Amino acid sequence: MTSPAPNHHASHPGFSGASGLFAAVSFLFGRDRAAELAIDVAALQPGERLVDVGCGPGVAVHHARSLGATAIGVDPAPVMLRVARARWRATPAVQWRLGTAEGLPVEDGWANVVWSLSTVHHWHDVDRSLAEARRVLAPGGRLVTIERRITDINADGSASHGWQRDQADSFAELCTRHGFVRPAVGEHTGKGTVLSVVAHAG
Ligand SMILES: C[S@@+](CC[C@H](N)C(=O)[O-])C[C@H]1O[C@@H](n2cnc3c(N)ncnc32)[C@H](O)[C@@H]1O
User: Fold this and answer.
1) Domains of the chain, with CATH numbers?
2) Distance between Cα 149 and ligand 1 center (Å)
């Protein structure tokens, strides 16, 4: 049996225009749990350097800065970065950069943590993105992905935005192929179940 692709929404056209602005504003709400979980799973420490891949309007970046981490938020949608800059203008020393998972605008070995929240299901090219995550991580750095657990990848609308468990397993396997070590899949219950994958740069 072939492994299920972790990026079944790779053909999403991207966020722009009025609907993109609506999405960006809506992603400012209800994202605290994912941000706190990412901090926990990544064991992010004050003073560490984080790259948030597909940061959207930046809620998780704000949480990381509040903890005392240095953070770069990367997103391919200018509308997301506009909302992030406006909402978090009082949050000091965050860099918001236009880019993609497949081409991170970050220097080699800069990051202690790379995380991507509710975004891997949109990555165009998982192999290139994992190579990029590996490139920007310092030795011993951690890659963390978090996705809402879904039951049907073919469901209509937002019900298909997330991962089934076998997609998380498949992503963990791909991490190993890209030189990450000790990949671990977690299931976190609460208001809905969330899947995490954490893998370490050797
Ligand atoms: C559902 S939103 C999640 C935003 C934010 N991470 C959060 O948890 O609130 C998905 C984000 O991924 C971004 N995205 C889509 N394709 C991407 C890619 N290839 N590389 C990086 N980010 C991407 C979108 O622009 C969007 O901001």
Assistant:
1) 17-201 (3.40.50.150)
2) 17
pTM for the structure as a whole: 0.97
3-state secondary structure of 27: coil
Atom of ligand 1 nearest to the CA of 161: 1
From atom 8 of ligand 1, which residue's Cα is the shortest distance away?
117
Residues whose CB falls within 8 Å of the CB of residue 55, separated by 6 or more in sequence, listed in order: 61, 73, 74, 75, 80, 84, 96
With beta carbons less than 8 A apart as the criterion, state whether 106 and 129 touch.
Answer: no
Mean pLDDT of 175-193: 95
Rounded-to-integer distance, Cα 97 and Cα 100, Å: 9
What's the pLDDT tens digit per position in 100-142? 999 999 999 999 999 999 999 999 999 999 999 999 999 999 9
Question: What element of type H or E holds 113?
Answer: strand 111-117
